[in-house]
Amino acid sequence: LLEDYGLEGEWSPLDGERDQNFRLVAPGAAYVVKIAGPDEAPELTDFQVRALLHLEANSPELPVPRLVRSRSGACLSAVDDAAGISHALRVVTFLPGIPYGEGVFPSAAALRHVGGFMGRVANALAGFEHPASRHFMPWNLANGVAVSRELWSGAEDDLVALVPGELIDYLRETALPAINALPSQVIHNDGHNHNLLRPDARSAEVVGLIDFGDMVHGPVISELAVTATTFQRLCSEHLAAVKELLAGFHGAHPLGEDEVARLWDAILLRLLITVLLSDVKVRMGGGSAADALEDRSEAMVMLARAVRADRDATVAELKAVCGYR
Question: Considering the entire predicted model, what is its pTM?
Answer without folding.
Answer: 0.94
